[in-house]
Sequence to fold (360 residues):
Amino acid sequence: MSRVYNFSAGPAVLPEAVLKEAQEEMMDYRGCGMSVMEMSHRSKMFDEIIQEAEADLRKLMNIPENYKVLFLQGGASLQFAMIPMNLMKNRVADYIVTGQWAKKAWQEAQKYGKANKIASSEDQTFSYIPDCSDLPISEDADYVYICENNTIYGTKYKKLPNTKGKLLVSDVSSCFLSEPVNVNDYGIIYGGVQKNIGPAGMVIAIVREDLITDDVLPFTPTMMKYKTHADAGSMYNTPNCYCIYMCGKVFKWIQSMGGLEGMKAHNEKKAAILYDYLDQSRLFRGTVVKEDRSLMNVPFVTGDKEMDARFVKAAEAAGFLNLKGHRTVGGMRASIYNAMPVEGVQKLVEFMKAFEEENR
Ligand SMILES: *Cc1c(COP(=O)(O)O)cnc(C)c1O
Fold:
């Protein structure tokens, strides 16, 4: 067996300890003679898996009693529609557009009501987070929407926007469980799990209870009502059982790493190694303003497309995979999620130094 250093933006690296455990339990989950993939979602065995996963997540994030945890399908992208369908009572919402995912959410919301773009960083190719201390929040906005960590561009909100009392909805797909959060600051905090938590195909939505009602837009499909899933404990239909099982294992792994405080220290350490090198390199440079740099996604360039391509190719040959930047921005991007070991980033930087020596 040979494992590479996988810098993919998603689906992404998972903790080796978790993969090994899943391997051990593959054929016979704890004496029940079958894999978790084969068992009924209504079985006692699976009920324990989903209950324990939820309880562990609640503990990790310190989720208050008045929030529901929903394990849903359709990825983060289906939430772009579910959010307006469930929350747009006045059919007005304010969007802060800091990248492609926020833009997609904003565009989707326009189908259901008046979605205002109240701030954007598109003028500088989304390389910064706009000042959100005094935005023109709409009087009748049902919510204010953000994408908290911008996976493609590598920016992160270091301070939540001042929503002037309006509900905050946040997509945390690429920074989920990477550091402590205060769930009370949000009406809905949600993310696809394939970046930082588990395999692809599921989204976890943490939704304040008073927002879960039958008062949704009239055409809302049953499957897209939060209430449908909340009332059924995320089992209105067959959930993504195996993904829930894997996420549950990752929650325990994070706990063993010191919870979200431990994760934050681990992530800050890795990011510092990479950013410190980028800041003094004479070949590579980061593309994001320093104050808004993400701990998770680190885009960088040489300024020469041909050189970028050569670097990506050489890195791949040396066992550092998926460093090519998003197709819309070019250059490189190293995604250094929770499960990326410190050693992976150290070795990448050593490799970059050697490449710099040879190519200056
Ligand atoms: C990857 C990503 C998405 C899309 O997730 P899907 O599960 O593929 O729909 C949305 N938002 C952010 C911030 C992402 O990183």
Notes: Residues 301 and 331 are 5 Å apart (CA to CA). The two ends are 36 Å apart (CA to CA). The chain has a mean pLDDT of 97. The longest helix spans residues 259-280.
